[in-house]
Specification:
Layout (H helix, E strand, L loop, with lengths): L5 H14 L1 H14 L14 H8 L13 H6 L2 H7 L4 H15 L12 E2 L2 E12 L2 E9 L14 E2 L4 E3 L2 E3 L3 E3 L5 E5 L20 H19 L4
Antiparallel strand pairs: 1-2, 2-3, 2-8, 3-4, 5-6, 7-8
Length: 229
């Protein structure tokens, strides 16, 4: 290669290297523009925004009016939730985490219930004879206005998280019906809530300082009680 052509060759190489990232950036922006959030199908026990926010608790039901549709609840980003006034940040993170769980089909107690009327579901203990001395009991969800004997096998829905203790339904928020082997489960505030850990003596960073000052105050109080200044 002639010396006079070296600058032009290097210049062409540098221009090519500088222009290379541009198609990659364009593809990334194109993929981002095409992203469509997954909107889950409402379930009978959690059919709308109000029910979802009520179930997951932490005071989120006070923000119900800020979400105009089910789609908005599951599609708004964290900055958009902040603009709506969902504060503090840990509350937004909690909401987003529960949205992802719901999308994956992971619900709290009663999430798999099918027969619901006005936010209430009826559970009953079904007894199945396996042999002369063997009886298996299981909890099923049945239509609210029917007794177990009136329900077909197709309308009996097995429910996770609930079991039969004798002839009674045992499980979260199950209220027994007197004189029957049935119970009512209703959509309740905080029914699916994941409780936060308690901060004792100010949390990990301030705990030693808080406890030290408390011991100093206790010793001072003991000295004063014994007549020492």
């Amino acid at each position: 290669m002639k010396p006079s052509r070296l600058p032009s060759a290097f210049g062409h190489l540098f221009r090519t290297a500088a222009a290379a990232p541009q198609p990659l950036q364009t593809r990334c922006l194109h993929r981002q523009a095409e992203y469509v959030p997954k909107i889950p199908t409402p379930t009978p026990f959690c059919p709308d925004v109000a029910s979802f926010l009520k179930l997951i608790g932490r005071g989120l039901s006070q923000h119900t009016a800020k979400f105009t549709t089910w789609e908005a609840l599951f599609s708004l980003t964290s900055p958009q939730l902040k603009e709506l006034g969902i504060e503090p940040p840990r509350t937004r993170r909690y909401l987003i985490q529960w949205r992802e769980k719901y999308k994956s089909g992971h619900f709290g107690p009663g999430g798999d219930i099918k027969h619901v009327q006005d936010g209430k579901a009826k559970l009953a203990v079904e007894e199945i004879e396996k042999g002369p001395l063997e009886v298996v009991r299981r909890v099923v969800n049945i239509p609210f206005d029917k007794d177990l004997k009136e329900v077909s096998e197709a309308d009996k829905v097995r429910v996770d998280g609930y079991s039969a203790e004798g002839k009674a339904v045992s499980g979260p928020y199950a209220l027994p019906l007197k004189g029957t082997k049935s119970a009512i489960v209703a959509v309740t505030e905080g029914m699916w809530e994941e409780k936060r850990g308690r901060k004792i003596d100010g949390g990990e960073r301030r705990r030693a300082e808080v406890r030290f000052k408390r011991r100093v105050a206790e010793r001072r109080a003991q000295r004063e009680a014994m007549g020492f200044s």
